[in-house]
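Write out structure tokens for Thioredoxin reductase.
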Amino acid sequence: MQDAQCLIIGAGPAGLSAAIYTARAGMRTLVLGSDPKIAGDYDIDNYFGFEDTISGRDLMARGRLQAQRFGAEIRQEKVLGVHHGDNGRFHVKTDQGEYDACAVILATGAARNRPKIKGLADYEGKGVSYCVSCDGFFHRGKPVMVAGEGLFAANQALELLAYTPDVRICTLGKPSAIPPEYGERLARAGIEVIEAAVESLEGDPGLTAVRLADGRRIEISGLFIAMGEASSTDFAYTLGVARSGIFLETDRDMKTNIEGVFAAGDCTGGFLQIAVAVGEGALAGRSAIAWLKSSCPGGGKR
Ligand code: FAD
């Protein structure tokens, strides 16, 4: 396992801005994330300091170089989960490795859409869950299903094996995008991957079964949603970060209710603009620096 003083999830304007501050303050900074959507052929006309239009691609490339100039390391890795680790530190699992950090800044952009399953909201807290480490325990030894098509869903399904051997994945009608090595692990664990859509959920008052478009009715006690990539909302669930809908709650310094966890940019809601994300990233970086200096043993260095 590798370690960082400050681990930033997200390589968009918010994450890179935070990295510029933490790395420049001498904190060992690791940024995990791919190019954000804005790093394409989009004209940016309203960002301070550019009298001519700049493309999103150029702006982001400059931001990355600036963060790297101060020593930030940027890796193209997908974060699958963030958990509380030992001694108040955080444990971060990605598609390529595992990390341990003293401060975490969540800057993953706006959370993705929830699946469109009829009646889904009615079963939230009554069988439908977004967090294996929070709710897996309630389904010990019972049949469960993970809804999702990719690596995130595969990882959640494997995590569920700690509670029950009876796990399935349903891609909700999408083609499976689970990488082959994970496919093999799922097969070894006897986890079936079903590519049918979900027609309906059943049970009163709690979830007891799903009806699939291929005609099957499968009895389940829990349905865990894990669509696409893990998002800030998923990390908030496992860490206990307060949310308002899909957005994370912070104070004016971008501190969440969990010590050592900060959030910035679109994932906190409000005015979803580059200038705001950059400003919030700076505040989150400053708060993380103060936290590392005051509260992490050895400044968060291992
Ligand atoms: P994002 O830019 O969304 O970056 C999120 C980062 O998190 C990415 O690096 C992503 O890879 C990473 N990430 C997400 N999940 C994971 C995971 N599980 N593991 C690892 N990394 C993860 N704003 C303006 O001010 N002016 C404009 O002209 C403008 N035009 C826009 C045009 C388009 C097409 C779009 C989509 C947005 C536009 N915006 C514009 C809005 C602006 O892009 C956002 O407000 C800004 O990018 C938010 O920055 P962010 O860092 O919070 O999130």
